[in-house]
Amino acid sequence: MLKRIKDKLDRPNHTWKRFLNSCLNFISKSLRIPFVLGFPELVSVEPTNMCNLKCPLCPTGSGKMRRRQGYLTLENFKKVVDEVGDYIYYMTLSNFGEPFLNEDLIAMIRYAKSKRIVVSLLTNANLIDESNASDIVGSGLDNMIISLDGATQSSYEKYKVGGDLSRAINAVKLIIEKRDERKSKTPFLQIQFIVMRHNEDEIEEIKNLAQALNADRLVFKKLCNLNGFPNDPQEMEEYMPLDTAYRAYKFEDGVYRWDTKIQDPNFCPMAWNYPVINWDGSLYPCCFEHSSFELGNVFESSFKEAWNNKRFISLRRDILKDKGSLRTCSECPVNFYRDIVFEAP
Q1: Which of 17, 164, 319, 320 has the fewest CB neighbours in a 10 Å radius?
Q2: Pick the CATH number of 45-265 from 3.40.50.2300, 3.60.21.10, 3.20.20.70, 3.40.640.10
Q3: Which residues of the chain have pLDDT under 50?
């Protein structure tokens, strides 16, 4: 407990308002109460749910996205930040879609940074070039995760359909180059590699590539089907790695199910501390893509109202009662996040 308190007090963006809010949130989680005292510590905001690539196991790329598509406006983004910015420590500017498709993304990062929020995002990096690399570094972005799911163009485009590996690699080089020019430590650049059947023999190559590029970190991720459940076994089989050490699924009753236990059957920190605001203002308790999880709209009301409205409180009660009985929760990769993301083998 004392270490936790010290860690928060030592954070570069520490304020007493944030610290008090964190304490209130901690009390809510510890006591397992469905009404959350205070705001979350982290908010994920979706700049867009459209993408320039067509990854087959992603609802955006596969065309299975049920939500209407569009872009978050800078005005609406500022509305959110103005309400929660003094309380949250972290913001993730990505969800289902390529964030750099939103022309206001750099302005959004800068506005969040003006509130001393730690900002991160996940990108395929195919839209990063000389025209925007310097602005990205200059925006103050803290963390950038670049998805590089292949060490060769043939394996990369097998999943990143429509993607260009050379553009992604050049983006890594540009960001590090511009970062060095500014003598900046940010953004911290992490390469993420999803292990699949067609690229599992490239693990050593991607390790060598990440080292040659001077990336700050390389992580590997087990394959997750984000298209929902039940899944298509044939679709899954095409991408499932042969090495079972890299599998997060087992084949059972005609479908692929998670081959791991739910870490906490009666709790999920996401619903208490890590909500997602989609581009249209719809508020989800987490990043799981399911229409039943739309619990309010922060553009139609305030975040504070939506955060503890009847639907949100009811969902938290259901989670506390039996999370496994909720289909969307029982088949959720977040339950097993510590099992699916790992450092270089």
Answers
A1: 17
A2: 3.20.20.70
A3: none
